[in-house]
Amino acid sequence: MRLLLVEDESEVAKLLAQGLSEASYAVDVAVNGMQGRRLIKEQPEYDLIILDVMLPGLNAWQLLQQIRQRGATPVLFLTTKDGIEDRLRGLELHDDDYLLKPFAVSELVARVRKLLRRAREK
Asked: What are 68's strand-pairing partners?
C-alpha cells in the first residue's frame, strides 16, 4: 500500500515515515502543501493521505479540496489544534479521521489500518 505523508516538521516526518515503513507501507513524504500537490499529481494512486493541518505553501484545506476533486482517497489529518471548530471544518470537507498531536506512532499505524480497511469495504 502506498501512502503520502504531508508534514512540514522534518523530524516528525522522518519518525512517522519510519514507523509506517516498518508496518510495511510504502511512504512518500512532502514537506509542504505545494510539494504534496505535486506528488498527488505525479502519483494519483495513493491508498491514503496523511495531512498535517498546519502547512506552509498550500494550506491543508486547499490541498484537501484538490484531493477530493480527484476522488475519495482516505485522508487522516494530523493536528495540534484541538478546537472543535477545526475538527468540524475538517469533517465538513470530508476528511476521514483526525489525530491530535502528540500521539504514538502505533496509534497512527492503527488508524491507517482502520481507514484502509474501511476504504476496501466500500
From this structure: none
Buried b (16+ CB within 10 A) or exposed e, 27-64: bbbbbbbebbbebbeeeeebbbbbbbbebebbebbebb
Could you tell me the domains of the chain?
29-103 (3.40.50.2300)
In 3D space, the residue among 97, 122, 120, 92 whose CA is nearest the CA of residue 110 turns out to be 97
Q: What is the pLDDT of residues 13-28, one digit of tens each?
A: 999 999 999 999 999 9
CA separation for the pair 24, 97 (Å, rounded)? 21
Q: How far apart are alpha carbons 71 and 122 in whole angstroms?
A: 13
Residue pLDDT, tens place only, 46-83: 999 999 988 888 888 888 888 888 788 899 988 876 66
Q: Which residues pair with 49 in a beta bridge?
A: 4, 75
Rounded to whole angstroms, what are the CA distances from 34 to 23, 61, 84? 27, 12, 27
17-21, 33-37, 118-122: least confidently modelled range: 118-122
- Rounded to whole angstroms, the Cα distance separating 29 from 9 reads 11
